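Example for tutorial group B:
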């Protein structure tokens, strides 16, 4: 993994954490981790995690609720 890929992965993981806390602020999470374009952020997020930010966070929250029952 190149340094740029590593940095991108860290930024996307940080954004994912922010979205778990506030799933309705995708643009805010994108800006907070250094993206200037929410659409670019969404494309890269989908490449990294296999789903859009909203879909991924909904899936994560559902798995926690199902697993925690």
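The residue assignment follows.
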């Amino acid at each position: 993994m190149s340094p740029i890929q590593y940095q991108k992965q860290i930024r996307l993981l940080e954004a994912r954490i922010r979205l778990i806390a506030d799933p309705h602020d995708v643009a805010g999470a994108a800006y907070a981790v250094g993206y200037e374009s929410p659409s670019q952020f969404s494309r890269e997020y989908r490449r990294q995690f296999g789903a859009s930010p909203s879909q991924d966070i909904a899936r994560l929250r559902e798995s926690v609720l199902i697993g925690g029952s």
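The radius of gyration is 12 Å. Compare this with the pattern of hydrophobic and polar residues in the output above.
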